[in-house]
């Protein structure tokens, strides 16, 4: 398998984020990117670095709102010109968009376009997000050219990014952008999200589309981030009715229960007759991940990889979560090894 890495896969991450009312050290540290790369190398992947892709902005706007993209492009520049500006942009007001008037003040824009305090914007956020998209676009191009499987190492992640809002450490929805690009060639594209957290942004982007199937296996949002989406009754609407499947699982979910949920997802993907697959790939389901609550072992990812391979679809793995624990590189290796063993 070829692994395509953003050139900034090991860039310093944000300093802080808000968790349970406290600002704490941000978990997306540079060592995390290095661990994932080690895991890919251990699995025998061919390592390639992404380069800037032509018409990249056009491809992003095919998924994201133009005004939102323009905000991300200029957010830091405008923010840093304010007196006493912080080194990272956090929203300090959350407007009711149904009644609020749009305001171009940098503080107002932060509240308008950043949904929570887990997605601070710094000086290099736009650069890093842009090259993450380059990695998935390059990966999608490889699949369109006939390659069977690609792993795209993106930092920052993307599956919480909505059409016009950043949240949960995500700014541009890498998986959604890749799926849209694959749809240029493949009539039906499935997105399988195996991150610990519900892929709310991906769901929102494709919720009314019948050519995309979105499935997310995640912690029950009744008491887990992102709290407001990811429930079983969210099935898609209009043309996308029955094209969205959420499988929320309880804290402590072990391998047997997780694989049962994955098998259900695989059956739905098969029935959908998908022609290509994007896997929003998170390892925060691991038993000791600092942001997870499941009980998967390293060897669990080998079985997950084997199950995904059983679909026999051109597959793009897109990096989402999985944070700085000693076993992260082994978890990555196990997933790739399982996929390639079938």
Automatic annotation (TrEMBL):
Cofactors demanded by this protein: Zn(2+)
Alphabetical keyword list: Hydrolase, Metal-binding, Zinc
Signal peptide (UniProt feature, chain positions): none
Residue span, Histone deacetylase domain: 26-337
Matching InterPro entries: HDACs, His_deacetylse_dom, His_deacetylse_dom_sf, Ureohydrolase_dom_sf
Origin superkingdom: Bacteria
Key word DNA-binding present: no
UniProt entry tagged with the keyword Hydrolase: yes
Family note: Belongs to the histone deacetylase family.
Protein name per Swiss-Prot or TrEMBL: Histone deacetylase family protein
Organism encoding this protein: Plectonema radiosum NIES-515
Lineage: Bacteria, Bacillati, Cyanobacteriota, Cyanophyceae, Oscillatoriophycideae
């Amino acid at each position: 398998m070829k692994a395509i890495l953003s050139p900034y896969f090991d860039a310093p991450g944000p300093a802080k984020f808000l968790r349970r009312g406290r600002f704490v050290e941000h978990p997306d540290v540079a060592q995390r990117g290095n661990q994932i790369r080690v895991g890919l190398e251990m699995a025998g992947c061919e390592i390639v670095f992404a380069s800037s892709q032509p018409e990249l902005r056009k491809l992003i706007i095919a998924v994201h709102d133009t005004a939102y993209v323009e905000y991300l492009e200029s957010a830091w520049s405008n923010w840093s010109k304010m007196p006493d500006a912080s080194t990272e942009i956090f929203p300090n007001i959350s407007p009711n968009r149904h009644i609020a008037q749009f305001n171009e003040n940098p503080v107002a824009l932060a509240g308008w376009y950043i949904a929570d305090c887990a997605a601070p914007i710094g000086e290099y956020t736009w650069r890093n997000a842009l090259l993450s998209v380059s990695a998935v676009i390059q990966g999608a191009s490889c699949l369109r050219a006939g390659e069977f499987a690609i792993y795209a190492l993106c930092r920052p992640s993307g599956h919480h990014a909505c059409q016009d809002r950043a949240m949960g450490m995500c700014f541009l929805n890498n998986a959604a952008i890749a799926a849209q690009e694959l749809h240029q060639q493949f009539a039906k594209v499935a997105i399988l999200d195996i991150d610990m957290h519900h892929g709310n942004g991906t769901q929102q982007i494709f919720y009314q589309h019948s050519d995309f199937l979105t499935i997310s296996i995640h912690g029950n949002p009744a008491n887990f981030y992102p709290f407001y989406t990811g429930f079983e009754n969210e099935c898609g609407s209009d043309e996308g009715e029955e094209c969205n499947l959420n499988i929320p699982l309880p804290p402590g979910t072990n391998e047997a229960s997780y694989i049962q949920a994955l098998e259900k997802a695989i059956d739905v993907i098969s029935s959908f007759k998908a022609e290509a697959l994007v896997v929003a790939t998170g390892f925060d389901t691991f038993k000791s991940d600092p942001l997870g609550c499941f009980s998967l072992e390293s060897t669990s990812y080998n079985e997950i990889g084997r199950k995904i391979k059983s679909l026999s679809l051109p597959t793009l793995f897109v990096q989402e979560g999985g944070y700085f624990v000693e076993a992260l590189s082994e978890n990555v290796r196990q997933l790739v090894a399982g996929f390639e063993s079938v």
